[in-house]
Amino acid sequence: MKLFSPERVFFEPTSLKYPLGQKLLEYFSARDIEIIKAPIQKVLQSIPGETENHKYAHAKKTLVITTKKALNLDICKPSADYEFSLVTNCPGNCEYCYLHTTQSFKPYLRAYVNIDDIFNSIKKYIDKNSGNVTTFEVASAGDPLAIEHITGSLAKTIEFFGSLNNGRLRVVTKFDNVDSLLDLKHNSHTRFRFSINSRYVIDTFEHNTANITERIEAASKIANAGYPLGFIVAPLMVYDGWKDQYKELFEALAKRLDLKNIKEPITFELIQHRFTSTAKNVILNRFPNTKLDMEESKRAIKWGMYGRYKYVYPKETSDEVKDYISQLINNNFPDSRIEYFT
Ligand code: SF4
């Protein structure tokens, strides 16, 4: 897919004290892209747009170069022990995006340049874990691969984890520009997962992301480069024809991957569609014609993180989804591992 290029870039003054901040300033100065040097508090008021939705569209094309101030890491169950960020938000525009709940008022992208501070923080969490392996998720607040061609931060992070005995990195993406990562010294310490879904879900709800063929191609390259490989199938949705389309998905995946040459078991993480009331309001505002099924009366309520209720499928439906998708995975990928269904 076409690589992302922002409309405007903000540089927070402190970001320019870091080598990556300087590198990015040079990168954008050599291109015809508006550069604004201003504190992060000025970003929202400087994004053009007469209506909220126009502002949102421009915010998605606005990149803020800044530093990560809070270096304490949150727990990230069930996918890893902790999460950290190289970027927040992403240029994709998925209607169901989980970030609608937490980032709806700040939908612009942020890239952090104090990478060494972030690495030092990670080392402290590993040291506290008494010689056990600690896992870290890097894509829970955004998609770092979406701007990797600009920052190069993910490559640096993969090599950092490659050098650690007891640290493991987990990446997930809906983008496909993996070529710059294929020759890195990853030491098999990074599990690279691709977010995949049925034709209907990708075509209807996942705008400005790589299409399924591109994602599968990228997954194949990553597997051939020796990375442990995984897939997050999310959000799993129930609609007319869902069973046939998920069957088609797993068959296409198994056909394209060179399974005999993939040494570590491929992992699958399964997440059913859910939404919060906050997200529903934001989604209806931003995508008034959305076809997302967000009818609360047809859902069960589950207590989620950050003190919010979320709406999931009723138990009977979620059991059916779990059993059916697990069966498809076991049929097509007999040596794989399903890590969780939630
Ligand atoms: S790619 Fe991921 S982070 Fe980006 S909009 Fe889609 S769901 Fe959200």
Strand and helix layout:
Blueprint: E1 8-11, H1 19-29, E2 34-37, H2 43-46, H3 52-59, E3 62-66, E4 74-76, E5 80-83, E6 87-88, E7 93-94, H4 99-103, E8 109-112, H5 115-127, E9 134-137, H6 148-151, H7 153-162, E10 167-173, E11 190-196, H8 199-205, E12 206-207, H9 212-224, E13 229-236, H10 242-256, E14 267-272, H11 277-286, E15 300-303, E16 309-312, H12 315-332, E17 337-341
Parallel strand pairs: 1-2, 1-3, 3-8, 5-9, 9-10, 10-11, 11-13, 13-14, 14-17
Antiparallel strand pairs: 4-5, 6-8, 7-12, 15-16
Helix pairs in contact: 10-12
Bound molecules: iron/sulfur cluster.
Protein described:
The structure is a single chain. The chain has 342 residues and is α/β, with parallel strands linked by helices. The chain has one domain: pyruvate-formate lyase- activating enzyme (Alpha-Beta Horseshoe), CATH 3.80.30. It is built from twelve helices and 17 strands. The chain has helices spanning 19-29, 43-46, 52-59, 99-103, 115-127, 148-151, 153-162, 199-205, 212-224, 242-256, 277-286, 315-332, and strands at 8-11, 34-37, 62-66, 74-76, 80-83, 87-88, 93-94, 109-112, 134-137, 167-173, 190-196, 206-207, 229-236, 267-272, 300-303, 309-312, 337-341. Strands 4-5-9-10-11-13-14-17 form an eight-stranded mixed sheet. A five-stranded mixed sheet has the order 2-1-3-8-6, covered by helices on one side. Strands 7-12 form a two-stranded antiparallel ribbon. Strand 15 and strand 16 form a beta hairpin. Helix 10 (242-256) runs parallel beside helix 12. The two termini are 30 Å apart. The model has no long low-confidence stretch (mean pLDDT 94). Bound molecules: iron/sulfur cluster. Iron/sulfur cluster binds next to strand 7.
